[in-house]
Amino acid sequence: MIVLKLGGSVITDKDRPETLDGEALERAADAVAAALEGGVEDLVIVHGGGSFGHHNASEHGVTTAEGTRDAGAALDIHGAMTTLNRFVLSRLLERGVEAVPVHPFSAGHRDVEGDLELPTGQVATLLAEGFVPVLHGDLVAHAGAGATVVSGDELVTALARDLEADRIGLCSTVPGVLDDDDAVIDRIAAYEDVADVLGESAATDVTGGMAAKVQALLTLEAEASIFGLEDLEAFLAGDEPGTTIDSS
């Protein structure tokens, strides 16, 4: 089973609010459709917020830790993400992919400590019935904080762990995790190996940057890859493009 994340910065123009990168999304959808036609089974897709979710969350001051109790703000953020989700679904459906939405706002929540609880039974059942579940960065109810952002990376981690994924792929705007010379780091087995390059997990948007991704992926049993859009087809074919993250 594969959990694939399409980064929000890949499929949207992150510098322009609520603007799709249509060409990039078409390429990603082509790669997914080709992989499924080639025999790939049990694929779960997660996509980030890009200029849809991040723009609206920033406007309302909502992050993974800072919440809102304003229903209008919540609807702005969630509505932007469902709009982007429909774009993703439509491109996949046009190519014969049996893609269906799973909206985290209606499924998950955070406890008072901020830990994410995400039921995955519906995702497992959809997979068993031949669907391709498509989740997305969203809001979730947060005890004591109203509603906060849940990032695509958090969803990937939860899904991969609960569904016992065999492989995890993060399709990014960069060809992998880069060192100080902008060369791709081939393999990461411990965060300490790249801490000097990535630094602390300081947020570069409302959900965190590359450091947070690497730290989260190192907690998983399954091997993960971070790669650029040009390597998506290769990843789905079973290759290990970009940076491989494996703590085992």
Automatic annotation (TrEMBL):
Subunit structure, as described in the record: Homodimer.
- The protein in question is named Isopentenyl phosphate kinase
Gene3D superfamilies with a match to the protein in the record: Acetylglutamate kinase-like
Q: Which GO terms describe its molecular function?
A: ATP binding; isopentenyl phosphate kinase activity; kinase activity
EC identifiers of the protein: 2.7.4.26
Name the domain of life. Archaea
Q: What class of enzyme is it?
A: transferase
What GO terms in the biological process aspect are recorded for it?
A: terpenoid biosynthetic process
Question: Would the keyword Nucleotide-binding turn up in this protein's UniProt record?
Answer: yes
Which residues are noted in the entry as ATP-binding? 5-9, 209, 213
The species is Haloterrigena gelatinilytica
For site (Transition state stabilizer), what residue positions does UniProt give?
14
Pfam families associated with the record: AA_kinase (PF00696)
